[in-house]
Write a structure and sequence with these properties.
With about 280 residues, this protein is an all-alpha fold. Helix content is about 75%, strand content about 0%. The chain contains 12 helices and no strands. The radius of gyration is 24 Å and the shape is globular. The relative contact order is 0.11.
Length: about 280
């Protein structure tokens, strides 16, 4: 296959983005003439928008202006329900990082033990297979009832959803370490602790990092829904609050920022994964 230019993909991305923005802009243009719509829908989105005087869906220029407004003052605080979007993102990122770190502290050592011992793997596998498919949000009522704190309950949900991908990938990575390398370490009479840190951990690190990338992606997905349930602060609560205010422009702005933050979290872990990947 003929190699493509370095700039081909970025130029194509810009072209796709331009087409998307153009379609978005023309599809949200003001409609001329009166439009008859369902009365309940008119009550929901406003009479002016319902009669065609103004589109209920903001255009790209509206969203761009609102994004610039958020970027100019991201950390304002005008009360419980009126905080800057930067403040809301910091709350969400903090919850994700705390829940993710606690899950890593549990999942990686436990995955190590499961991967090194077939007996423990067989004993724990039924519990893992039953608990792993449970939606993290299903734990929320139980967490709120037992913990009685909405912030800690949201962190607990992040902990639960981050746990399983890291645990399973760590166990798989440790169990997949080449037997030849373990036999060489045994022949050289390397201690079990040194074998774990200098042979098994480096060999399993790429698989462990893959599990961590999956976990942080799921955690960032779940925090938005969790914060819609617990309320108070966070980008999920911001989206829900703006829906109650019927501010579609703010909702689209928040959706774009959620995507950007998710991409940044994944990129950071991808860089870390490249750093621990070895070439045979």
């Amino acid at each position: 296959m003929k190699p493509t230019s370095f700039w081909a993909a970025p130029i194509l991305s810009v072209l796709f983005f331009g087409v998307f923005v153009g379609v978005w802009h023309f599809s949200t243009q003001q409609t001329l003439g009166e439009v008859t719509v369902d009365p309940e829908y008119a009550a929901l989105i406003g009479a002016q928008a319902a009669t065609g005087g103004q589109s209920a869906m903001p255009g790209p220029l509206d969203v761009g202006a609102k994004l610039w407004e958020h970027i100019r003052d991201p950390f304002y605080d005008r009360g419980t329900n009126d905080k800057g979007i930067g403040t809301q993102l910091i709350y969400s990122i903090g919850r994700v990082l705390i829940g993710f770190a606690l899950a890593a502290l549990v999942a990686i050592p436990l995955g190590f033990v499961i991967g090194m011992s077939p007996l423990i793997y067989k004993a724990l596998d039924p519990f893992i297979q039953v608990l792993k498919p449970i939606s993290p949000l299903a734990w929320m009522p139980l967490a709120l009832y037992t913990i009685k704190d909405s912030d800690i309950s949201a962190v607990f949900v992040i902990f639960i959803c981050s746990l399983w991908p890291m645990l399973v990938n760590t166990a798989f990575g440790v169990a997949s370490v080449r037997k030849d390398w373990l036999n060489v370490a045994r022949t050289l009479e390397v201690s079990p602790l040194r074998t774990a840190f200098q042979v098994i951990l480096p060999a399993a690190a790429p698989t462990i990092m893959t599990g961590m990338r999956i976990s942080v992606g799921i955690a960032w997905l779940v925090i938005v829904a969790a914060e819609m349930l617990v309320g108070g602060t966070g980008i999920g609560y911001f989206v829900w609050n703006e829906w109650n205010n019927l501010s579609i422009t703010n909702i689209i702005s928040a959706i774009l920022l959620i995507g950007l933050v998710g991409m940044m979290l994944d990129t950071m872990l991808a860089q870390l994964a490249r750093a621990v990947t070895y070439k045979e």
